[in-house]
Every structure is written in structure tokens, then in C-alpha cells.
Amino acid sequence: MRPISRRQALLLGGLGAAGTVAGGAGLIWSLSSPAARPSGGSLVQPEELRSAAGQLQVRLEAAPAQVQLGGRQAMALGYNGSVPGPTLRIRPGDTLKISLVNSLSQPTNLHVHGLHVSPENNGDNVFIAVGPGSSFDYEYHLPGNHPPGLYWYHPHHHGMVADQVFAGLFGAIIVEDPEPIEASAERVLVVSDTTVDPAGNISAVSAMDRMAGREGDLLLVNGQTNPEFSAAPGQRERWRIVNACVARYLRLRLDGQKMQLLGADSGRFEKPLDVDELLLTPGNRADLLVTAAAGDSVLQASRYNRGSMAGMTGSGAGQGTEETTLATFRVSGESTASPLAIPAQPAPADLRQSAVAAHRQIILTAGMGMGAGGMMPFTINGKQFDEARTDTTAAAGTVEEWSLVNTSPMDHPFHLHVWPMQVLGDNAQAGSSPDWRDVVNVPANGQVKVRIAFADFRGRSAYHCHILDHEDLGMMGAIEVR
Ligand code: C2O
Ligand code: CU
Ligand code: CU
The pTM is what? Predict the structure, then answer.
């Protein structure tokens, strides 16, 4: 995720203007008439399960489910019958036990995206397959200093990840702040997209859509289209936003309201960052404070051009409408007293001065020739994912610097499990605050450098493009830390 400051957002040019734009169906709406997109009713929060006495034990059953998606009856896949699945609320130092029950007709498994926990045995081990009709007991031990913030869970069975997430299998995980941050309301906003066919089933997608990275016709917040919610002027709310879309980038704006970013992906900035616009790639999260100002505002996702392969058409690659209303925020009534100051956050780790034990190049490539089934191969360092092969071996206790190189004409959001990455800016001013992510966008024909501390945990895990279709098509590698 790339936070954009007030000044930078203005520099993007024209974006700040409250103009009128044409929506997909030729519908016209503007900031002065935010209700022009039909309201999806009041925002519903996913069920919340929270830890007690250092432990949370949950049963998650993945199964076909009749649910409402964007106000329509749909036969989707859900955890415990809902889309999104329940929100799991835990604390640093907790043990999270998840009994995954597979009531699908195909294999699945579970990944806790962003959590800094062991990838071994029954931890965050994506090499486990849970067959139809069976179950598996995962157990995750969060270190006592685990970064607070917003994380999420979803299936990770290679080859089926995009289909299962597109059909509704995902949910949020909150790791609470050791020192609470005062907010008048806390809202979880899980953004997803999908396509429901006229019979109410989740649409299958074409080979072309997979190569582009599928984008659904319905853009949903907690399964709803344009839900609304309200506050009084002066109230400060906590919004936790997950981009659970298979491939869609979300460029978010909330004009007329004050947004402060507490953290991107895992952890916290030392001081909250004022933002006007936020880019969330698939897999990214934003932990936001919104201070309400009188008036109605729309949470908007504007088009982001993530490029495309030559000759590629289809639903993907940012071909969608210019702007979509995600939700409507209504602010009226008596002004309230200003909320308390935000407690100071510990200074984030900074690897810029660390000794580097290894430099690596991770080269993301798409479309050199045709692979099996007429699909373009999506590769990392020239290889499609092979579960039996370990692509990268790192020494525990060391810091590495990776150059993420994209040789294709489309962006790829690069994700590493377990160990977060510190992004080294191009103009790495020593003074700038450290920028930690677990999904880093690598622009088309561009590159990004990151540093990673392989601390705490050993074991075998994965890195991949978080356009989940690309992951399924092979843009993934296995890493072992030992
Ligand atoms: Cu959110 Cu390996 O994924
Ligand atoms: Cu992950
Ligand atoms: Cu990709």
C-alpha cells in the first residue's frame, strides 16, 4: 500500500476536484449527490470472535452458502455460512486455534495473511492440503511483541486460491493495540469483488480473465453494495479496511473527511499519517482514523491502471468504471468534543543501517511463450511454482535485501509470508519513517528494493504475486529459513 500525502494527492492533478463522473451503467453521480448509487442499507459487521485469557479457539467450516451479495441471493462459499467470515479479534501473545472443516467438494487450507507466526507443522503452513470432508487443527502462537493491526485469513491451496476467494472465503483478523486508541466506533470494512450469474451462482472466468487477474462486476463491502453508516461531527472512528479482491487495486478517497493512517499492513507508524488517498493492492490493509465533518461523504474507489499484457482484454487490468462508490458516510447532528490524543507508538524497526547478509533478485515475468493449456506462464526467476522445490534459502537471524524486478507490462503486488518487508524508497532520505508492508506493489517494468529481517521463525513458506490468479498460474516461490 502506498499512502499518499495531502500534497502528493494534489500533485496527482485533477483528482481533488469534486467533479461529476460517469459510472458503469451510464449513471451519473457527484460528491454533491452521493446517494445517486442505490444504497445497500446500513452497514453490517461480520460476526466477531474474540480471545479470552490468552486464547481464541474457533471452528471455521468452509462450505457452500446461500448468502446475500450486493442485495442478491447468491450461492457462494463461506466460512460458517457468511461472506465475509467472522472477524477474529486477538492480542499479542495469544494462541489462536482454528479447526478448519472442509465441506467443499475440493481441497482447501488456511493462511493467516500477515501474521508473524511460525510457518511450520500446524502453524501457518500453506503446504498442508485439507481434502473434502476432512478437517485440520491449526495453532498459531503470536509473539508477545506481535505488531497490532489488521490481518486476514483466506485459503491458500495452490491452483484454487483465486476461485475460492472470489467465491467468498475470506475474513478479517484484528490484533489489538496494547494501549487502546480512543474511537467512537470501530468498523471492519472487508472489500471484495465477485460476479454472480443470472442463476445466482458465482461466475466462472475465462483463461483471459485469469491472465489479466479477474475483477468482479460487484464491488462489495462486507458483502453489501454501497452500505451506509453515520456519525456526529467531531467523532473519531476507527476503520479497518481489507482489500480481499482477487486482483482489483483500490484507490480510495473519502473527500470531505479527515483520514489518518495508523498503519499499513502490519504495525504502526510512529505518528499517524494524514492521507487524502490510499492505494490498496490486493492483500493490503489500512488501519485508519476518520474524524467526521458535517455532510455526506462517499468512500470511493477510483480506477487504477495496473497495465495489461499486449492483446489482453477481459474483466481485469483496471478495465472497470472510473469510480465506484464503496460506502456512504453520513455526518450530522451536534458536534461532539474532540477525542483524546493518540497514544505514542513505539518507533518501528529500521533496517536501513543493518548489515546485509545476502542480496537477491526476484524477477517477476509474465507471458514468455505459452505454457500448459494455452496459458501464459507466470513465473518468478523463470520458474513456475513447484511445491517440491525450495527456491530461496535464507539464514535465520540475518537481514537480506531483495530487488523485486518486474519485466512485464502489468503491475504485480508482491507478497512474502511470515516476515514483513521494509520498503526502501527511491529517494531513501535517512530521516523518512520506515515503511513496512507485507504486500509491495512492483510497477509494470519497474523495480522496488526491500529489506527483510529473518528473525524469530524458521521453516518453509512462500512468496507470490497477490493477484491470486497469477499465484495460481505459477507466480510463486518457496522459501526456507534455517
Ligand atoms: Cu494473502 Cu500467500 O497470501
Ligand atoms: Cu499471506
Ligand atoms: Cu501478478
Answer: 0.91
Paired residues of 63 in beta bridges = 78
Report CA torsion sign: 157, 162, 165, 168.
Answer: negative
Task: Judge contact between 210 and 240, C-beta under 8 A.
Answer: no
> How many A from CA of 436 to the centre of ligand 3?
20
Ligand nearest to the CA of 157: 1
Query: Is 392 inside any structural domain?
Result: yes
In a domain, 397, yes or no: yes
Domain residues for 442? 358-481
SS3 state of residue 74 = strand
- Does the residue 43 lie in any domain? no
The answer, yes or no, to whether residue 150 has pLDDT greater than 70, is: yes
For residue 372, being part of any structural domain is answered with yes
Question: Ligand 1: does its nearest atom lie under 6 Å from the Cβ of 158?
Answer: no
- What pLDDT score does 266 carry? 83
Confidence of residue 285 (pLDDT cuts 50, 70, 90): very high
Measured CA to CA, the distance from residue 366 to residue 380 in angstroms comes to 9
Q: Which CATH number do you get for residue 387?
A: 2.60.40.420
How many CA within 13 A on the CB side of residue 349?
19
Residue 470 has φ and ψ, to the nearest 5°, of -65, -40
